[in-house]
Amino acid sequence: MQIQVKCNCGEQNCPEWAIVELQGVIEPQPAFQDRLQNLEIGQLCRASSQTYTFTVGYHELTGSKVPLKKPLLVLKKIRHADEEKVELEVIGIIRQRILFKTRPKALISSKFNLILP
Amino acid sequence: METAIDSANKEANGISLSEKKVTVVFVLGGPGSGKGTQCANIVQHFGFTHLSAGDLLRAEIKSGSENGTMIQNMIKDGKIVPSEVTVKLLQRAMQDSSNDKFLIDGFPRNEENRAAFESVTGIDPEFVLFFECPEEEMERRLLSRNQGREDDNIDTVRKRFKVYMESSLPVIEYYIAKGKVRKIEAAKPVKEVFEAVKTIFTPLKEKELYLIDCKKPVELIEAAMEMETEQQLSTCRGAEAVLNLQPASSVSIAYHSLFGPHDDLVLLELDEKLLPDVLHNSLMKMQFFVLRPKHMPLSMSEPPTLYCLYRLQINHCCVEMHKILMRKIVSRNWWHQSSKWHLVSWKLFEVAPRIDRLKMLLSENPYRFDDALMSEELDEMEKNNTRLYSWSDLIDKVQASADELRSGLQALSAVEIDGYWRIVDENYMDGILNMLLHNSVLNDWSLNGLNEAEVVGVLQSDGFPCEIAHHCLQVYGSKMDDGMWRLDEKRVCIHFARGILRGGKIRMDNFMVEWMRKIPEEMQASFDMLTGEVLTEKLGIETWVYAFSVSSLPSAPAERFSMLFRERPKWEWKDLQPYIRDLSVPGLSSEGLLLKYTRRTQPTPDAEPVFSAR
């Protein structure tokens, strides 16, 4: 079986994707189960040059931007309707991830907890 | 987001920031209305860069330039600084920044400013944020703010209000007429004011996220993690917002409008060095294998991990791709869901080409004397039944890239005859070489300057096919710059040594005598030519020699070492080296190879190290 791997953007211009890596499951409230599109999950904030915080509901995660040891390519399978051939097209490359690996901190105060200077 | 801006642009007057599309928001309001405070919040939450005209001017004063002193005097009088000065400072700050969203605070303060800004930069503001605040409130705030500003004392404060009422309000009126003003009631506490600010700025945020399989929890390759892990991916625009997030700013993460399961997307992990090959429209040819783990787990709670192995070629190197299939871990009864395989990601890495298979295929049918005679008589049917392989057959059957296959064929001294690649039988090669040497004596040819056409012609008349004749020259000689061929001494001598040893072990002295006899007169042979081809052993007081060629050994390291240690349990480095120097494993150095497959002992620090099996 032969599969053609295409990249239409050229080596230098591959759009760079981002990965936010979490441990755990994000669950929407049961009322929203069916209407996930466009639903906001949380706020990703870069608190300083090294630390990122991700606030989901009343949980706050702390993490950092880590480069991936080996880059990940995002490939899309294109199946041509008329022929049997399957093609893989490179649509993005991922080199960095924002890794959250600590336990989330519970924000006990009200929902409108603003980060003010 | 960095754009190359010519330095010429910076020097010339009135050139717009044409290369950078910027979003500009003016922040206006009386002194003490809370502009600075709220700007800090906007910067943090919406990723804008705050440019305060006042701060830029104060910085210019501090720098001690001529410009700065002039500015200082004007400020002491509560007057407003000439427009060009301020506009240029702003322009420079916008060009120097890597951001494209700017909050311009405290500018334009009058009609002249406004007109100057528009004509010089050509930028139209996105909107104008106006902090509306009564005078008493502003005065109260100014006198208590203690920022160390020269103009925060009561007299200057009153002067500033007057200027503001006279000059700045018309500007605001102008923008109101254009429908660009967003008013904010600034007399409220900071938090409330910020809520209002947020409402205005929210549509400008980028919040596109492309979520994969949120409903189906997905395990990463590093299955050592016990907790489930989820991955969220973003499209380009959202990705830029995330990757380029500035310190003290934030971005909202949300499900994309197209969120849903995406079976057509695949993640491929690969080495950086394979990236150019894959990206240049490579072709992957795959053979599909599924490797099962040694035992299937008995307990219901533990789903098995299966690897799907793809063997393939990518341009110059041979790679393997492991597709890691994971089960869904949605519910406990995974047996029910066992028929559904969920593709997560692939791993691509380089491996050594499987040249042994090539050797095996070609050895099925080596070219012999009878082939030469029979070639015209074989009809199509018979040709298909005999195991003969053309280049395209080999590319399909052997896991190696085109380059690697070519060098493998060369290493095996294979020749292409009638479209099929063949290894030539040893006896046959012996025959043709002898014929060549015989003729060279007869025709008085020099072995260092053989004429190709002449040689081939003579050999053909002796009954050898033309391709074989050419092949003989290539195997035993090299073509020189002047087009003549020169027989390689080492290769020819090795050939004769192998011929002698084909019968089995021989005593060293007998061997040397025989060898000297057989080689052509013009050539000299020495025993060290035979490293990697023969081994010696001592039986009693005599030394015996026997054939042991590196080319007869398997090319995969594990098998190679086991054969070597089967032959001899212990090897000294000088003996071992010729038998392993052709081994190559991507990612493993020769020291690494030794470490992995051998045990090394060194009786004394100055003695030679000795290697044995692990």
Describe this structure in words.
Chain A has 117 residues and is mostly beta strands. Chain A has one domain. Chain A has no helices and seven strands. Chain A has strands at residues 2-6, 16-23, 40-46, 51-56, 59-79, 86-99, 105-106. In chain A, strands 1, 2, 3, 4, 5, 6 and 7 form a seven-stranded mixed beta sheet that branches. Chain B is elongated. Chain B has four domains: 4-205, 3-Layer(aba) Sandwich (Rossmann fold), CATH 3.40.50; 218-348, no CATH class; 355-490, no CATH class; 553-614, no CATH class. Mean pLDDT of chain B is 75; it is low at 1-17, 204-236, 288-309 and 325-343. In chain B, helix 5 (83-96) crosses helix 6 (111-121), helix 7 crosses helix 8 and helix 20 crosses helix 21. In chain B, a hairpin with an 8-residue loop joins strand 23 and strand 24 (610-613). In chain B, strands 2-3-1-4-5 form a five-stranded parallel beta sheet, sandwiched between helices. Chain B has a five-stranded mixed beta sheet with strand order 9-14-13-12-11. With 614 residues, chain B is α/β, with parallel strands linked by helices. Chain B: A ribonucleoside 5'-phosphate binds at residues 58, 79-81, 106-109, 149, 160. Chain B: It is found in: Cytoplasm; Nucleus. Chain B: Its EC number is 2.7.4.14. Chain B: This is UMP-CMP kinase. Chain B: CMP binds at residue 113. Chain A: It comes from Actinidia rufa.
